[in-house]
Amino acid sequence: MKADEFSQKFDFAKPQFKHIETDREIIVPVSGGKDSTATFILALQHFDKDKIIPLHYNTGWDHPKTYQYLDYIQEKSHIEIQKTIFEEAPSMPDLIRRVGAFPNRMARWCTGRYKETATLRWYKKNGFYDNRKGQVWLGIRSDESAFRRKKYGDNDSSDIHGFKEIYASTPKSLDRNVNMRFPILDWDTQDCFDLIKNYGWKHNPLYDEGSNRVGCYPCLLSSKKKQTEEFNTEFGQKQLKFIKNLEKELGVKYEMYEEDQGSCEVCNI
After folding, report:
1. DSSP result, 166-217
2. Residue 257 has what DSSP assignment?
3. Is the pLDDT of residue 171 over 50?
4. For an engineered disulfide with 54, which of 49, 81, 247, 263 has Cβ 3.0 to 4.6 Å away?
5. Cβ atoms within 10 A of the Cβ of 211, count?
6. 135: β partners
7. C-alpha–C-alpha distance, residues 216 and 243, integer Å
8. Please, which pLDDT band fits residue 143 given cuts at 50, 70 and 90?
9. Average of pLDDT values for 139-146?
């Protein structure tokens, strides 16, 4: 069987995407990673730019190259990336000092403040608690983990979910106005890289340096193995030194570096 015949026979080998028209604005959370970038590109391919809102959950704790990459996709798309902010403590170091401790498995307040409270405030400030209608395009894939396969394996990328269905604590006023879709749910890693390349964009350079995920650097709730990988980079060494200085400043120990398990709750949606 020829390659093209094989491809035609097994259509599941191709990334699937079904365009569904909507009058809602398309909100695309962008981390600077391959999945959210591919999702952003899909939105650009199917909707007018004035209808798309890229949104970055700002923690002030990403790798500098990720912030540079966000500037890059903003320039390439000609759409300003909106950023959430937790005004009481705009960056992770600010929040650690405010709390007087580091986050841990039992106290994931970095997730709560930066990816929940700050995000809900953004929606409220921008009218989505009132009558403004939106649809969040979240770039998650079911093959990323056993947890996601179990939770989303029976869903289809064209399914429209209620906001509260995914985030149980969502206020009713927001749930009425904003729903959610997972456009690349059944894609794999290479599908995302291929779309970015075929669209004429570059991917985040951290992938070429060995990273398999993009986000907080390091995620203070990730496993010891993952943190060790990132602490062993040039920028990671600076972050580790900063954390050790914070330990001395606050008189508390950063315990999660000794843990073998853990991850951000929002990343486990």
Report:
1. HSTT--HHHHHHEEEE-TTTT--HHHHHHHHHHTTPPPPGGGGGT-S--SBT
2. G
3. yes
4. 81
5. 20
6. 26, 179
7. 14
8. confident
9. 83
Q: What is the C-alpha to C-alpha distance for residues 256 and 244, in angstroms, rounded to an integer? A: 13
**How many domains does the structure of the chain reveal?**
1
For 58-68, write each residue's pLDDT tens digit.
999 999 999 99
Phi, psi at 20, each rounded to 5°: -125, 115
Mean pLDDT of 142-153: 74
CATH code of the domain in which 35 resides? 3.40.50.620
pLDDT for 206 equals 97
What does the DSSP assignment read for 42-87? Answer: HHHHHS-GGGEEEEE---S-B-HHHHHHHHHHHHHHT-PPEE---T
Q: Is residue 149 part of a domain?
A: yes
Number of neighbouring beta carbons within 10 Å of residue 197: 11
Supply the angle between the helices 189-198 and 34-46 in degrees, to the nearest 10. 50
pLDDT digits (tens, 9 = 90+) for 67-81: 999 999 999 999 999
What is the residue range of 164's domain?
22-98+105-208
Structural Rg of the chain based on CA atoms: 19
Distance CA(102)–CA(123), nearest Å, equals: 28
Domain membership flag for residue 165: yes
7 to each of 2, 12, 70, 147, 199, how far by Cα in Å? 9, 9, 34, 29, 21
Q: Where are the beta strands (DSSP E) in 113-170?
A: 134-137, 160-162
Q: What is the pTM assigned to this prediction?
A: 0.90
